[in-house]
Amino acid sequence: DQQVKQNSPSLSVQEGRISILNCDYTNSMFDYFLWYKKYPAEGPTFLISISSIKDKNEDGRFTVFLNKSAKHLSLHIVPSQPGDSAVYFCAAEGRSQGNLIFGKGTKLSVKP
Amino acid sequence: GAGVSQTPSNKVTEKGKYVELRCDPISGHTALYWYRQSLGQGPEFLIYFQGTGAADDSGLPNDRFFAVRPEGSVSTLKIQRTERGDSAVYLCASSLSLAGTDTQYFGPGTRLTVL
Q: Which among A46, A100, A104 has the least Cβ separation from residue B40?
């Protein structure tokens, strides 16, 4: 049973517009959430994270929002650029864990 | 500085053979993780090390899989009697420590194909 779910396998956005990637989780023991970006033939690259004590974290064009009551987080990219085209993975970590639990990923395509 | 490196980048083997996959973590990182990514899936945890010892190996699918990190740096993932279902990309990551806020940095992976 998947603990971290990304229900949209793909998303297409026009350059300059906002990209919103969504992620849901089921385990209330998760206390740290991350987004990784992956290009073909490369390993995942860390993008941004958020602790469960916060509801928003911003880093340049990337903002992650956390809604603990809904067990939902989202990644906003604005403005989107063609170089943002990649697979985005949502991941979560529990307080007593060292490993990350990943979603299946969402493939983002940003069209010029 | 150098990132996480993994060798080989690709490995093709026959069913029933033994394979070893190597991971060189970032220098100074005490925590090392192995994940497996199958087609269309996210990375799935296999095992992680703090120093030389396996802190959690609960993700290893069965006793054909084993990993070592004898000197607390390089790690080797060993798979005995490979099966076609073992075909996947095997990812290694390292972090400064096991603290949740320490970022895990991933290598490029080893693509294993079992014929």
A: A104
